[in-house]
Task: structure prediction
Amino acid sequence: MAKASATLECPVCSDIYTNPKLLGCNHIVCGKCITDWLEKTKGSGGCPLCRAPIMSPSPSPSASRHQLEELVDSLPTDLTIMAKVANLKLLSSRHVCMYCDNNTPASSFCLQCSMKLCKACVKGHKKIPSLKNHDIEQLDSLTSERLAEVTRSCCKTHEDRLAELYCCDHQELMCTVCATSSHRGCSEVMAIREAAMEKREHLRREAQRLREEEARMKAKTEKQKARLAVMRAKANRKFDDLRRCVERRCQEVNDLIQAEEEQLALPQQNHVRAAALSQAAVLDSLVGEAPDDALLDMGKAMTSRLHDLQQQAAATDLVQGPADVTVDSQKLTEVTSAIAKLGTRSARSQPPPPRPPPSPSGTKPRGTALARVLKKGDRVKLNPDLPCWNSKDRERRGTVTAVPSRRMVSWGEDPSGKVDVLWDDGDEWCYDMGRRGHYDLDLA
Result:
């Protein structure tokens, strides 16, 4: 068989599609590949390519292969790819005339009869009045796409007849015999081409609606991004102003301290200190080395010099000390605390109502009352009043992980009235707590 194009190869098994199934994530995978994957992952595996949920709800981990095959069969089949694969196999097989029985090589193909014909049978085909207007093309130039364009489906009830009509009530193709017998009472039976035109127009409108919805969501996202950018720029400006204010005040305090430092008579004090040290050294020398008569003769001069030093030291004491520059630690702490509270997120919605206090009797809320107060982190068990649980299920205990259910959101369904529970044995699922009036859980 000729090599198939990439569009006809399953991305999982890399072989030509067999029973191609269209998943919710728009990936196309062979039905057998999906069954094998679900069996391998115990039903919990999503799409083999992107891990999106394959079906909702997910199969039970204990489901048999036969049950998995039934679930996979319920997924939509991509009939377009099936037709292309069938045409590819037909054109890739050995070209033998399908009319005569002597294995004569075929060179042509009748698009209406879907038969390979040899040269002799082509001549005979054209001689039959009811077949002479059929389109016959050379096999060498015929492609699977061209074959798919002209191939017509057969009636499901009468497989030997071509489908010519479409029943809108039952949404199925049929022949004229079925239209006059089984579908006589149906409200709308149309020609296939007319029905296909209406369906194409409907799908075109749906595609346009989806594009408009995507554009609306994109515009909303861009608006939110712009709003966040404005918030970011505003916050940066405010904090830059605050930073500059703090730096400016810090510099002002340092300048004030510098001014007080400059007012001190430091050079004069340093001169007096140096003179005192020098004079003390001279006196030590006199005391230790000078003779008695010399020491007495120099006593008057030394006393006068000491008196001068004392006067100079007293003069430096008259210089006023620096003024105190204080930093109010309490006020600084208050400002720091206020800054820490800047930029907090405002509430997007009203806070949930407070949980009601337990009843005096000590009974736990159930049913509607429990659904109103159930929150993430609550310990729960299955409602023992429901007969659907087996003895093992009744003993399970778990923790609520999401209210409302995140699983329902990931599946594209309304999460209201559903909560997610992670059981102590590691299993996780979503349960009714108000959805359609059902209450699956009790407080543990």
